[in-house]
Known about the structure:
By secondary structure, the protein is of the alpha+beta class. The protein contains four helices and two strands; from the N terminus they run H-H-E-H-E-H. A two-stranded parallel ribbon has the order 1-2.
Amino acid sequence: MTTRPGTRSVFYRVENADPAVIELDEELKGAGNDIELATAATYLARPESRSINVPVLTVNGDQDSIFCSVGASDCSSAEALASQEGRYLGPRAVSEAVVLPGGGHDVSLERTASPAHDAMIDFIERHVGG
Length: 130
């Protein structure tokens, strides 16, 4: 299963994305199955994430219509998002976050991709080494 034709814009803040990128995403979109869909909603209730005890970075746009606007994630600040996501990790995990102003859900395919990637590279260099 996949998204209906012409609905990929739900993953973007349209004002922050090149229409040609959204069109190409529509053309190249992947597919999933009903098992993936059924388990996606339960991932936060599962105990496995509590065994993650390493640095974790969450990157999200503050206009993400999938997580932020429905209240699933607190995208009001990097600190709020890191704190919220850290609750699902192990006791020795380091939770960090970046909230991209004007960004949507698909941060790597929007105009905010460069600052998102810079934040990811910085995180890797600080926690893994450069």
